[in-house]
Amino acid sequence: MFTIGVATIELRLPGNSSLKGKRAILRPIIARLRKEFNVSVAEVEAQDVYQRAVIAITCVSSDASYIHGLLTKAVEMVDRMRIDAEVVDYDIEIL
Predict the structure, then answer these.
(1) Which fold has domain 3-94?
(2) Annotated domain spans of the chain
(3) What's the rounded Cα separation, in Å, for the pair 78 and 29?
(4) What is d(CA 48, CA 26) in angstroms, rounded to the nearest whole number?
(5) What angle do CA 37, 88, 19 make, to 5 degrees?
(6) What pLDDT, on a 0 to 100 scale, did the predictor assign at position 80?
(7) Closest to 57 (Cα-Cα) out of 68, 49, 46, 65
(8) Residue 62 gets which letter from DSSP?
C-alpha cells in the first residue's frame, strides 16, 4: 500500500507588484524543492494575486513517517530561503 503526503505553504510577497515579479520569486523556490527533495510542486491558489502565493508539495511513499519528515524539511527549507517571501502558514496532510 502507498501513502500520499501533501504540504501546502502560504507565502506573502510584500512589495511585489506584478505577476512577472511573482514568478521570479516562485520559480527558484519550486526548482530547489524539486531538485533537493524529488517532489512535485505547483502553485495552487491565488494565481492572479501579486502579493500572495500558495504552493503545494506532494510525494508518495510506503512510509508515512518518511513522508511527514520529508515535507517538514521542505517547509523548513522554504522558510529559511533568503527570498522576498514570507511563510505565513503551512499545513501537512498524510492521505
Answers:
(1) Alpha-Beta Plaits (3.30.70)
(2) 3-94
(3) 7
(4) 13
(5) 80
(6) 92
(7) 68
(8) S
pTM: 0.90
Helix/strand/coil for 70: helix
Which residue type sits at 22? K
Contact 6, 61 (CB under 8 A): no
The rounded distance, in Å, linking the Cα atoms of 84 and 27 is: 12
Hey, what amino acid is at 90?
A: Y
Q: Residue 40 has which C-alpha cell? A: 512535485
pLDDT for 83 equals: 82
Contact 39, 70 (CB under 8 A): yes
Contact between 43 and 29 (Cβ < 8 Å): no
Averaged pLDDT, groups of 10, the chain, 95 residues long: 95 91 93 96 90 96 95 96 90 96
Q: What is residue 56's predicted lDDT score, i.e. its pLDDT?
A: 98
